[in-house]
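Help needed: design a sequence for this.
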């Protein structure tokens, strides 16, 4: 893996940035190095099963997550998603975060 730092956080709203021209040069060089080493690079694989557990602030948030058939209720405010595939588990997690957030805001 090749990476290039083109900015450094100062705080939540500010950062030190390289100029676009300098950033472009560094990114291009890193991409060339990566392509030269392509045969060495293998995709990162996460072996299943994968499980995410979420503790919500409100019981109603956890309840709404159970609208998804793959969600397991583990407590008044706790739900879990599980899958053999990381991407599927992550999608289930995102669905829970979206629906629980909407519930907390009173949108559902």
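Sure. Designed sequence:
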């Amino acid at each position: 893996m090749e990476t290039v730092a083109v900015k450094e956080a100062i705080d939540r709203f500010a950062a030190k940035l390289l100029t676009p021209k300098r950033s472009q040069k560094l990114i291009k060089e890193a991409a060339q190095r990566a392509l030269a080493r392509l045969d060495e690079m293998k995709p990162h694989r996460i072996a299943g099963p994968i499980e995410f557990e979420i503790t919500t602030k409100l019981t109603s948030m956890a309840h709404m997550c159970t609208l998804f058939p793959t969600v397991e209720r583990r407590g008044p405010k706790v739900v879990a998603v599980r899958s053999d595939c990381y991407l599927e588990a992550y999608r289930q997690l995102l669905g829970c975060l979206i629906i629980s957030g909407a519930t907390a805001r009173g949108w559902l």
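DSSP finds three helices and five strands in the chain.
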